[in-house]
Design brief:
Elements (H helix, E strand, L loop, with lengths): L2 H16 L11 E5 L2 E4 H17 L8 H6 L10 E3 L1 H5 L6 E8 L2 E9 L4 E6 L4 E3 L2 E2 L9 E4 L12 E4 L5 H9 L5 E4 L4 H13 L3 E4 L14 E4 L2 H11 L2 H5 L1
Parallel strand pairs: 9-10, 9-11
Antiparallel strand pairs: 1-2, 3-4, 4-5, 5-6, 6-7, 7-8, 11-13, 12-13
């Protein structure tokens, strides 16, 4: 499928299976994979519907969804896709979205982020830039002080040169804030490929940089304790040096 056809499939599935349940979930439609990590009927049904659409187009494709991989962790070894921000969605918070990424040979080559409530679709293809609702996005530049959205433990003693605020708890919301210049830095203590593959591809296309602490550029499957995504490699290095302490690494 071409990029626009995939984008339309994502929009259609969200309209049919996600948005009608927003703010209307029954208690029996919400479950917990583990404490604090919710899954709803909208997650599982939307993921299954997108999987069916993508596999019908290319039966050889391996589709790895967040909920499917929870049921069968071995799927991640092959690697991607996800409804992101489930906790927000389940609580009636509009900060959620759908993330889809296409990988070939372990490299992300296409990505989509759809924000159903905001009506914003971000699409990227490797080497071809990023579009938001059809409009090309420009290269990134960072403000001073650098505006960051990071977990609470990284905000306890903010160093000079950084204005740090909470994340939205949804990569489908946080990455677009970085892509549109509304923030300069993102910090994460989780690094699942379905959460980051699309956003990191888009970030790279706009001149940004994402890497685990102490590692090289982030790739799906990388492991570590902290992932920073920044508007530039220089800002990434500043943040990694200033925000990461032994106490933080102990997590």
């Amino acid at each position: 499928m071409d990029a626009d056809a995939v984008a339309q499939a994502i929009v259609d599935v969200a309209a049919r299976l996600i948005l009608p349940r927003f703010g209307r979930l029954r208690p029996d439609e919400v479950d917990a994979k583990k404490p604090g990590d919710l899954v709803t009927v909208a997650d599982t049904e939307a993921e299954a519907a997108l999987t069916a659409i993508l596999q019908a187009d290319d039966p050889r494709a391996l589709i790895v969804g967040e909920e499917a991989s929870f049921a069968d962790p071995s799927l991640v070894d092959a690697l991607p896709e996800a409804v992101d921000g489930t906790n927000n969605f389940a609580q009636g918070d509009p900060r959620f979205g759908v993330l889809v990424a296409e990988l070939r040979g372990g490299e992300t080559v296409r990505g989509w982020i759809w924000q159903p409530v905001a009506g914003r679709m971000f699409v990227a293809e490797l080497g071809a830039g990023v579009r938001c609702n059809g409009e090309e996005l420009g290269r990134l530049s960072a403000a001073e002080p650098a505006r960051g959205r990071v977990p609470g433990r990284l905000r306890r003693m903010p160093p000079p040169g950084f204005d740090l605020r909470p994340t939205s708890r949804s990569c489908a919301v946080d990455y677009p804030l970085l892509l549109t210049g509304e923030t300069d830095l993102l910090g994460f203590t989780h690094h699942h490929p379905w959460d980051h593959a699309a956003g990191v591809l888009m970030l790279n296309e706009l001149g940004g940089y994402a890497a685990m602490h102490g590692g090289g550029p982030w790739r799906p499957g990388d492991s570590g304790r902290l992932l920073f995504a920044a508007a530039s490699e220089d800002l990434w290095r500043r943040a990694d040096a200033a925000l990461v302490t032994d106490a933080i690494l102990g997590l």
